[in-house]
Write a structure and sequence with these properties.
Blueprint (H helix, E strand, L loop, with lengths): L8 H14 L4 H4 L3 H40 L26 H13 L6 H7 L19 E5 L2 E5 L7 E7 L5 E6 L4 E2 L10 E12 L2 E3 L6 E6 L1
Antiparallel strand pairs: 1-2, 2-5, 3-4, 3-6, 6-7, 6-8
Helix pairs in contact: 1-3, 3-4
Length: about 230
């Protein structure tokens, strides 16, 4: 039997929130206690908070990597290389102990073992495996959308069933491998040109599946920066 727990952290957070919201409807049917409902909500809220914080610090790490590289190897006359700002986290949710997944599956399996349980209820609670499309490895390419956000170039893209993307960038001298991204969206840490100058940056990407490149390069995404 296929396992119903989402392996991706973001999807697992969504699964927890869906479960915590909908078990309220069936509390009486399955004999759930107030503690069961409260603990499910606390686990969902704290795990969601942790995932959001991890994503912000991951983006900051990329920014610091670019800042450090430019600080060491950048052009001496480059003036704009400000260090990244410390991320602002949302107010911390009520803390819970480790073992969120264990508590989730314990309660879910208890519900599934109840004689009142049905497959339809399981679908609503998100604890039944649904059919998924086979991952395509050929003729697939990510769609990149470059936008200015927070003083940096952001590459918006959709992850789907893939592990991430490998990104190449052309700053005027041809495409070179630039970075990898596993959690949309990607933030280019490169400082922008001085206001009096402008440049055209081009990007392309290819999907990764278990760290292997699959499919084709995306269409080239172009954005003018500075100026």
């Amino acid at each position: 039997m296929k396992y119903y727990v989402e392996t991706n952290d973001e999807k697992f957070a969504m699964q927890l929130n869906n479960f915590a919201t909908n078990i309220v409807i069936y509390a009486g049917l399955f004999g759930l206690t107030a503690d069961d409902l409260s603990n499910a909500n606390k686990d969902a809220a704290f795990f969601t908070w942790a995932i959001a914080g991890a994503k912000k610090y991951e983006d900051t790490k990329k920014g610091w990597t670019g800042f450090k590289t430019i600080l060491r190897q950048g052009e001496p006359n480059l003036q704009n290389n400000d260090p990244p700002q410390t991320p602002n986290l949302e107010p911390v949710a009520a803390t819970v102990s480790p073992g969120v997944q264990f508590r989730f599956t314990s309660l879910a399996n208890r519900i599934k073992a109840n004689p009142n349980y049905t497959y339809a209820i399981g679908q609503i609670l998100g604890i039944e495996v649904t059919s998924r499309a086979r991952v395509a490895f050929e003729n697939v390419q990510p769609l990149l959308k470059p936008v200015m956000r927070g003083g940096r170039v952001n590459l918006d893209w959709k992850k789907g069933m893939y592990s991430g993307i490998v990104i190449e960038k052309d700053s005027g001298d041809g495409f070179v491998v630039f970075d990898k991204d596993t959690r949309p969206n990607f933030v280019d840490p490169t400082p922008l040109p001085e206001p009096s100058t402008s440049a055209v940056w081009k990007y392309r990407a290819m999907y990764l599946y278990n760290d292997d490149r699959v499919g084709d390069w995306s269409d080239v995404a172009t954005i003018t920066v500075g100026g």
